[in-house]
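Title: Comparing notes on inverse folding

I've been comparing how different people in this forum approach sequence design from structure. To keep things fair, I'm posting one structure and asking everyone to reply with a full sequence. Here's the target:
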C-alpha cells in the first residue's frame, strides 16, 4: 500500500474506528427500516418485491441483470425491448452482484439489499479516509462524516407548499431533488440501490488518488486513480465529464495562480484520463453502433430542475458550501482549493448542454459537505464571543435537534414516505400475488431466451427480473420507442376487433407469448380466449399466458 495512504490510515485512531463502526450500524439500521416494514406488511397470498418509492420502475431493470447472471449469462441484453440486439452489453458491477446471487441462491431482492448494505459500509469507510486526508482534527472528521451522511435540503419541509407546482415533462421533473434523485444526496444514495453507492465510492477513490498523485508526484497514485475510473465508467460513463472538467479546471487555475505550467500535475491527470478512456470509448461505440442502445439513449432525458429548486434541494448545506468557497479562495491550501473547484465545477455541470444533467449530481454532496463544515468553523470562530453561539455550539442535544430540523428533515421525509406508502399499499410495485410468481416461473421454465412477451407495461416491468425473458414494453427508457409501443399495447387490448391486424402485429413484432392479467383487462375488452392465433399455456386465477401461433 502506498506510503501516503498508509499515513492517512495510521492517523485514524481507535476512538475514530469505533465511531465509524457505530455510524455504519446506524446507517444500516435506519435505511433498512422501511424495507423491513414493507416485508412485514406483505399481504397473505402475495410476495414482497423489495421495491420502494424511489424510482420504482428502475429496480426491476437491475433485477433483470441479476437474473441473467443466475441463468448463466456473462454478456447482458436489454430485456425490456423486443428488437434484435447486436451490441454486447458488458457491465462488470452487475455481473459481480449477479454472481453473488447465483452462488448464495438468495432471492433477487435480498441479493440487492445485502449488496446495498455492504457497499454502504464501504462508502462510510472510504469517505472517512478521504475526510481524514482533508482534516487533521478528529472532531472535524466526525462532524464532516455526519454532515455528509445525514444532511439534505429543504425539500421535505417545503413539499406541502410545492405540491401544486409539481409536474413532469420530457425528462424534467419540477420537484426538489433531495426527495427523488438518489444521486443528489448521500443519504438517498445509501438508501436506494447498490450501483449508485458504488459509483460514489469510486468517485471518492478517483479524486483522492488524483490528489495524492499531485501532492507526491508518484505514478502509483495516478495509476490507481485511473484503474478506479476505468471501472467507474464501465457502468456510469457520463461521469467522465465530471472527471475531465474538474481536473482540467483545477490544472488551469493552479497554473494561473502559480504562474507556472503544471507539468507534473498534467502528466498524472493524463494518466488517469487515458487509463479510463477505454470504458468510455466502449460505451459510446455501442451507442453509435446499435440502434437499440442509441434509441434507449435518446429517450434517457434526465434534466436538472430549475436553479431555485436545486437551492431548495441542498438547503443550508449548499448555502454554507458557497460561503466555504469564498473562505477557501482566501487560503493557500491546495487540498481545499481542489475541493472548492470540484464543488463549483460539478454544480455548473448540472446545467451543461447534456441529456443526463441530473446524473452529474452524483457525489456532489461530498465536496459540498466538507465546504459547509469549513464555513461553519469560520462562523463559530468569528462569532465565538456571542453567548448564543457559545451556548449552542457547546450543547450536543441542541446541536443534534437543530441538525435534524434544519439539515436532515428531507431524509426523514423519505423514510416516512416509504413507510406510509407501504402501510397504504398504494404503489403497484410493492407486492405481487402468488399467481405472478407461478407465472414468472412458468415463463422461465418454458419460454426460450430469445422469446418475447406482450403484456401491460407494469407487468412488463416485472417479467424480465423474475423470468429473464424479454418483453415488448416495460420501461420508459429501456424500451425503445416506448410511447409508440404503449399506444400499440392499448390498441391491442382495447377490444376484440381487427383480429387479423392484431395477429399480423404479433408476427411483425416477433412476439411469442401474451401475458394477460387484471392489468391487461383494465385496458379494454380484449378476450384472448378462443382466438385462433393464441394457444393457452398457463392458466391461474389471476394470470393467463398464451402462446402466439404463427
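Reply #1:
Here's my take.
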Amino acid at each position: 500500500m502506498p506510503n501516503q495512504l498508509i499515513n492517512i490510515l495510521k492517523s485514524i485512531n481507535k476512538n475514530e474506528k469505533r465511531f465509524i463502526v457505530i455510524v455504519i450500524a446506524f446507517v444500516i439500521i435506519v435505511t433498512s427500516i422501511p424495507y423491513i416494514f414493507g416485508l412485514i406488511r406483505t399481504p397473505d397470498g402475495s410476495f414482497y418485491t423489495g421495491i420502494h418509492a424511489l424510482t420504482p420502475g428502475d429496480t426491476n431493470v437491475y433485477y433483470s441483470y441479476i437474473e441473467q447472471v443466475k441463468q448463466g449469462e456473462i454478456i447482458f441484453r436489454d430485456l425490456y425491448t423486443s428488437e434484435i440486439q447486436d451490441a454486447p452489453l458488458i457491465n462488470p458491477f452487475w455481473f459481480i452482484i449477479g454472481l453473488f446471487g447465483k452462488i448464495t441462491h438468495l432471492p433477487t431482492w435480498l441479493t440487492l439489499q445485502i449488496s446495498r448494505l455492504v457497499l454502504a459500509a464501504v462508502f462510510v469507510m472510504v469517505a472517512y479516509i478521504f475526510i481524514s486526508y482533508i482534516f487533521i482534527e478528529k472532531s472535524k472528521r466526525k462532524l464532516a462524516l455526519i454532515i455528509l451522511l445525514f444532511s439534505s435540503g429543504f425539500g421535505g419541509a417545503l413539499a406541502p407548499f410545492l405540491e401544486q407546482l409539481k409536474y413532469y415533462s420530457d425528462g424534467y421533473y419540477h420537484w426538489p431533488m433531495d426527495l427523488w434523485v438518489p444521486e443528489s444526496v448521500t443519504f438517498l444514495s445509501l438508501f436506494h440501490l447498490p450501483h449508485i453507492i458504488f459509483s460514489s465510492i469510486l468517485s471518492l477513490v478517483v479524486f483522492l488518488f488524483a490528489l495524492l498523485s499531485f501532492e507526491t508526484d508518484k505514478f502509483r497514485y495516478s495509476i490507481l486513480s485511473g484503474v478506479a475510473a476505468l471501472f467507474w465508467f464501465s457502468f456510469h460513463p457520463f461521469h467522465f465529464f465530471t472527471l475531465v472538467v474538474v481536473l482540467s479546471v483545477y490544472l488551469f487555475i493552479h497554473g494561473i495562480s502559480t504562474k507556472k505550467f503544471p507539468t507534473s500535475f498534467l502528466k498524472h491527470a493524463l494518466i488517469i484520463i487515458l487509463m479510463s478512456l477505454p470504458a468510455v470509448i466502449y460505451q459510446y461505440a455501442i451507442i453509435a453502433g446499435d440502434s437499440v442502445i442509441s434509441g434507449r439513449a435518446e429517450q434517457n432525458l434526465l434534466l436538472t430542475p430549475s436553479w431555485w429548486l436545486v437551492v431548495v434541494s441542498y438547503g443550508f448545506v449548499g448555502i454554507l458550501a458557497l460561503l466555504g468557497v469564498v473562505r477557501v479562495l482566501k487560503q493557500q491550501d491546495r487540498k481545499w482549493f481542489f475541493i472548492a473547484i470540484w464543488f463549483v465545477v460539478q454544480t455548473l455541470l448540472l446545467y451543461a448542454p447534456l441529456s443526463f444533467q441530473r446524473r452529474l449530481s452524483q457525489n456532489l454532496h461530498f465536496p459540498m459537505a466538507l465546504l459547509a463544515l469549513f464555513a461553519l468553523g469560520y462562523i463559530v470562530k468569528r462569532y465565538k464571543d456571542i453567548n448564543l453561539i457559545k451556548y449552542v455550539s457547546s450543547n450536543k442535544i441542541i446541536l443534534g435537534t437543530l441538525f435534524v430540523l434544519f439539515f436532515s428533515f428531507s431524509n426523514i421525509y423519505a423514510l416516512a414516505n416509504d413507510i406510509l406508502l407501504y402501510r397504504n399499499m398504494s404503489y403497484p410495485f410493492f407486492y405481487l400475488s402468488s399467481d405472478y410468481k407461478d407465472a414468472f416461473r412458468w415463463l422461465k421454465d418454458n419460454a426460450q431466451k430469445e422469446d418475447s412477451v406482450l403484456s401491460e407495461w407494469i407487468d412488463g416491468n416485472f417479467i424480465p427480473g423474475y423470468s429473464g425473458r424479454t418483453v415488448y414494453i416495460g420501461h420508459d427508457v429501456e424500451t425503445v420507442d416506448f410511447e409508440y409501443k404503449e399506444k400499440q399495447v392499448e390498441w391491442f387490448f382495447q377490444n376484440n376487433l381487427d383480429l387479423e391486424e392484431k395477429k399480423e402485429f404479433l408476427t411483425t413484432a416477433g412476439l411469442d407469448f401474451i401475458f394477460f392479467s387484471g392489468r391487461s383487462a383494465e385496458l379494454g375488452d380484449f378476450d384472448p380466449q378462443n382466438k385462433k392465433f393464441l394457444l393457452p399455456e398457463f392458466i391461474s386465477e389471476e394470470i393467463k399466458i398464451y402462446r402466439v401461433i404463427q
